[in-house]
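Hello,

Our lab assistant flagged a job as stuck in the queue for most of the afternoon. It eventually completed. Since we weren't sure the result was trustworthy after the delay, we are filing this so someone can double-check. Below is the sequence as submitted and the structure that was eventually returned. Let us know if re-running is recommended.
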Amino acid sequence: MVPLLAMECAHGSGESAVETAQHVDSAASLPAAELAGARCQDGHCRCRELRDNVETVPPAADHKRFEIRMSVAAGEIVLTSPTLGRLHHDGRQEACFYVDLPAGSSHEFVIKSREAQKGQGLTPLVRIAEYGPKGPWWYDVLTVGCGAGERRCDRDTAREWESSWLTQRKRGRLDACGSTVVSALRWDTSGGQHMQDGGLLRDFHVQFVLQVKAFAPQLPPRDPRCVPQ
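-- returned structure --
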């Protein structure tokens, strides 16, 4: 595959491009991720609603809580991490997962989504947010998506997502007030229909690293006083 963008900028610049990547097999043998907090019971989590920011069972002092929202129209989606485990969803309706990660740690993630029926395409969406107890607030960390509404994932919509990420992030952050950095972000696909047949992709794969910084966020999301570190 021809790379869409140049490789990641030299170390020290703090800026990185989205890159195409070779497939990384997400181990099917990984256990289900351990869910955290009062929103989760019996392996399922209730999604946080507007103004429902408080985690009544907060993470341990040396951990940070993350919200992972997943949906996919006409397909299935799997998120895996060697340290976190495995999350799976196969519906258009959004599913939420809440997990805790150690402060001051880094974690590799792979998102793999694929169409349910050959030639029908898919529309995957994953959103990750970080909990800030002081507010309490939630900080946007990463949004991964290809296609929107009734428009299925193709190379144009993949590039639109790529361009959006590059435009919005500052030194690996969507929100400079948060404490989590996204690095080594790459996307890939095994292909799909020919352009004359609609050009829909049969799958959409993304891999990245979450760097969970040790400091605790102190200001509200998107506060203009925040400077990316």
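-- support follow-up --
The delay was a queue issue, not a problem with the job. The result is valid. Residues 146 and 153 are 5 Å apart (CA to CA). The two ends are 34 Å apart (CA to CA).
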